[in-house]
Amino acid sequence: MVAHTLKQFDVELENIRGKVLQLGGLVERQLLRAMDALAEGDLVLCEQVINTDQEVNRLEVELDEMCTHVIAKHQPAAIDLRMIMTVIKTITDLERIGDEAKKIAKQARALYSSDVQFVPRIELRHGAEIAASMLRQALDAFARVDCSVATLVVRRDKEVDAEFKGAMRQLITFMIEDPRTISRALELLFIAKSIERIGDHAKNISEYVVYMEKGRDVRHLGLEALEREVAKP
Asked: Which CATH architecture has domain 2-231?
C-alpha cells in the first residue's frame, strides 16, 4: 500500500512537471509570435496572441489545483515540498510572461491600427530573443534541476537590461528630435519594458530552481552570492 502510494505520488509529480513545461512552451511561443506580429504589422496574429492568454490562464489554474491536491493528499516534505513550492511560484511567473506577451501584441495592434508614418525604426527583436532564450534555459534548469544552468540565466539578465536601456535612449532621442513620434515611441517603449520584464521573470524561475535543489532562497542576494551558493557541495 505504501509502495503504491509513493508510486502514485511520483506519477503526480511528473505530471505536474510536464504541465509546467507545457505552459512554459506556450508562453515562449506567445512571446515570439507577438514579436512576429510587431515586425510584420500582422493584426490577425496580434489577436491570436491576445486570445492565447485564455489558454495560459487555464493551465495556470489547472496547475494550481494539481499542486493543492498533492499537498493535501501526500503532505510532501523536504525536496518534494520545495519542488511543489517552486512549481507554484514558477507558474505565477509564467502566467505573467504570458501577460507581457499579450501586452506586446496589444501595443503592436495599436501601432498598426493607426497612422504608422511616425513610428520610430528601432530594433527590439534581439532583446526579445535573449529573453526567450533565458526562458528556455530556465525551463531546462527546472526540468533537470540544474543549478548551473540557472546561474547562466541570472547572469544573462544583464543583457536584457542593457537592451532595454539602449532602446530607451534611442526612443528618447527620436522624441526629442521629432515630437510627432512621441505617441508611437511611447508604445514601443512599453514593448521594450515588457521584454525586460520577461527577462526578470525568467531570472526568477532560475532562482526558484536553486531553492528547489539547495533549500536556500537566493532572491535578492546578487549574482556572486548565488554562484557561491550553487558551488557548495
From this structure: Up-down Bundle (1.20)
